[in-house]
Amino acid sequence: TTATTTSMSGLLRRGAGALKRVARRADDAATYAKLTQPLTRHEAYSEVVAYNRSTVPIAGKFPNVFHNTFIAPDAVVAGDVEWDIGGSLLYGSVVRGDKNSVSIGCWTHVKEGCVISTVKTLDTGFPAKMTIGNYCFVGSNCTLTSCDIGHRVTIEDGVTICEGAVVEEGAVIKAGSVVPPGRLIKAQEVWSGCPAEKEGMRAEFDIKVECEKAKTYTQFIEDAHADEFLPHGTAYWQMEAILGSKA
Question: What is the pLDDT of residues 44-101, one digit of tens each?
């Protein structure tokens, strides 16, 4: 009897294993058939995105990002951050308001791979918050730390601006430059180098043109990434925090 039971158990195990292999092959065949089918129009023009949270609180401080400012799916805005209307934060970039606040104006665009952060204090005694004005462009792979960027400033790719630096309205910082701590760049000046030094003045600067350029880029972002805009804001986080504190 024991031998018969053992034999039956072995047969059942082998049968179950065979069924699993058949099911796995069927799944593989179905998957292969699906992958080899032509893409539909929707699938061909849809981007694959990560459904993570792009805006997150830090230590009870919630970011406040205007609803039509585009935050890429793999970019992050965290902590004490205020971002006004019509801007964009592209792929792989991080804005972190943990040690101090970050304020970014309207129609300001930050491209891929940037890090914008703060320090707790400055040696000068001035506030260590991070500020970027309206109608600014920050190029790819830039690092900005507790500095003050005025309106209509153009920061090209790969620029580093250290803590305490001040960049006034309409200035241009060329690609790869490093602006040392506490450096003052006056209005409409052009700086370059490592460490950055004044190269000259902007040949042309039209406030209206600069504003329209930023707004046109906003429209391009809205058209290109319309499917990635959330249908709602994140103001409910603050309400949840208030209700939770009263519970």
Answer: 444 444 456 788 888 888 899 988 888 888 899 999 999 998 899 999 999 999 999 9
Phi, psi (deg, nearest 5) at residue 117: -145, -175
Instruction: Round to the nearest angstrom and report the end-to-end CA distance of the chain.
Output: 65
Contacts of residue 113, Cβ cutoff 8 Å, sequence gap at least 6: 91, 92, 93, 140, 141
Among the residues of the chain, which ranges form H helices?
2-36, 41-44, 207-224, 236-246
For 129, half-sphere exposure in the C-beta direction (CA atoms, 13 angstrom radius) is 12
* Interval 22-29 mean pLDDT: 57
| CA 247 – CA 244 distance, rounded (Å) | 5
70: left (phi over 0), alpha (psi -120 to 50) or beta: beta
- Are residues 156 and 140 in contact, defined by beta-carbon separation less than 8 angstroms? no
